[in-house]
Amino acid sequence: MELAWGDGTRMSGEGGRPRGRDDHAVVIGAGFAGLLTARVLADHYRAVTVVEKDVVRDGTVRRPGLPQAHHVHILLDRGVRALEALFPGMTAELSRQGAVPFDVCEMSAMLPRGWAPARPLDLPLTSPDRGVLDRLLRRRVLALPGVSLRDGFRVDALCLTPGPRGALCHGVSGRNAAGRNERLEADLVMDASGRHSRLPGWLAASGMATPTERALPLRASYTSRLYEEPAEGRWKPAAEITQAPAVARGAAAVPLAPGRWLVSLTGMGQRPPADESGFLDYARSLRNPHFSRFVIDGRPLSDVHTYSVNPNRWRLYHRIRSTPSGLLVVGDALCCFNPVYGQGMTIIALQALLLRRLLARRQAPSAFTASVPRVLIAPWLMAMAADIRWCPQQGNLSAMVTAHALGRLLDQAPADPDLYGRLFSVIHLARSPASLLHPSVLARLAHPRPAR
Ligand SMILES: Cc1cc2nc3c(=O)[nH]c(=O)nc-3n(C[C@H](O)[C@H](O)[C@H](O)COP(=O)(O)OP(=O)(O)OC[C@H]3O[C@@H](n4cnc5c(N)ncnc54)[C@H](O)[C@@H]3O)c2cc1C
């Protein structure tokens, strides 16, 4: 199937280069990263083709390539602002679709050593239905001149040609919606095919160097269900925070729209059960009593969905001496984070803004590969510091010392509102991790405030 929006750019059949145009970008994947990247590329390429293996209709909200849409997705304030910069009016559109923004301090959040202090933090959050968010983005992107979607098209190889200065990537090939093999020629290929990206295998099949990976042998699991709030209910957003190595069970409950709440139970190295009684028992086993109330008092509006991922994997493409020119990697295909920290989409939005800045300065797209680690490194080190204690055999001494210090700060947060504010501002990507090196914070490590 072939769809075209905007100026109606059409592929020219086999060979696939838009007629009369020589600047064509192909984006693999119509997920969050693919759509944001297409938005940026549309300002610089005369034609942008987003290629998606799923069949996607205008109204599609749930689809096989987006299994995480059944689970809680928090969009941090920094991510909302980045989306607004890329798609003016998006915040208003999200609230028209029912998204209910709230501040972190409105959550009943259970930290590993007690309740989070109820102090205003000015850290607003939004928890849109992930499928609805993608539908909004898709509509905005496909309305841009020159942007089109080829859905039902599974990319299974790159088109690579050796050249005097290394290989050149000049397109992709795969199986189209009619079941035929097809090539799409392009000047730029962006891999935005998510955490299961097969790019390393495609490079290896062509005899090219593949990236080394940083990853932890860990599973993060989600089991989620949608509930209707009872008429007399006064539900508040809720969270239970995991902490390595002792607190492996966590949860989050957020409003997707007024009266419709998504409850996700999470497990590090364990999977919350998907049967009715197991789901309730797991909710009851949490220290935050709100979770069992959601399950007991709410009316289920959906089946129970489960999903497990390997969190925290970074493919170090910037370290490969010669990646093919004309090929970039973005989003989870490049680096994915433990979803329990709620940072993934925000970090992708920051990658899109970086690409926009580089292209606006007329830098070659390849500058993105060299620059993107600057966006990733701080959240990556924080995620590693939080998660390395699940797999201590993977950590060196300095990683374990950092992890231990971070654990101590989190332990003190219930009794220390100022520390709690600093810590969560860093987790929400609102402040640099360097702010945790402030003398007042270091002093608290040495002399913790007594618990209240
Ligand atoms: C359970 C869970 C909860 C999460 N919670 C949060 C949260 O609270 N906050 C947050 O910010 N982030 C969260 N995340 C992370 C967030 O979902 C991801 O960071 C984000 O979806 C990644 O977007 P992406 O576009 O890179 O990949 P994806 O969303 O996975 O999109 C990849 C797309 O590529 C398509 N594709 C794949 N292979 C091919 C191919 N060969 N040919 C054509 N198309 C292909 C897929 O069908 C898909 O549409 C969560 C993740 C999970 C798993």
Description of the structure:
- The chain is of the alpha+beta class and 452 residues long.
- The protein has three domains: 2-66 and 133-215 and 311-375, FAD/NAD(P)-binding domain; 219-309, Alpha-Beta Plaits, CATH 3.30.70.2450; 380-446, no CATH class.
- 30% of the residues lie in helices and 23% in strands.
- It contains 13 helices and 23 strands.
- The protein has helices at 32-41, 77-86, 90-96, 130-142, 199-205, 276-284, 290-297, 344-360, 367-371, 373-387, 397-412, 417-427, 439-446, and strands spanning 3-4, 24-28, 47-52, 75-76, 102-103, 108-111, 114-115, 124-126, 147-151, 154-161, 168-175, 181-185, 188-191, 213-215, 220-228, 238-240, 249-257, 260-268, 299-300, 305-309, 313-315, 327-329, 335-336.
- The strands form five sheets. Strands 6, 7, 15, 16, 17, 18, 19 and 20 form an eight-stranded mixed β-sheet that branches. A six-stranded mixed β-sheet has the order 1-9-3-2-13-22, with helices on one face. The protein has a three-stranded antiparallel β-sheet with strand order 4-8-5.
- It is globular.
- The site of flavin-adenine dinucleotide (FAD) has 37 residues, from helix 1, strand 3, strand 10, strand 20 and helix 8.
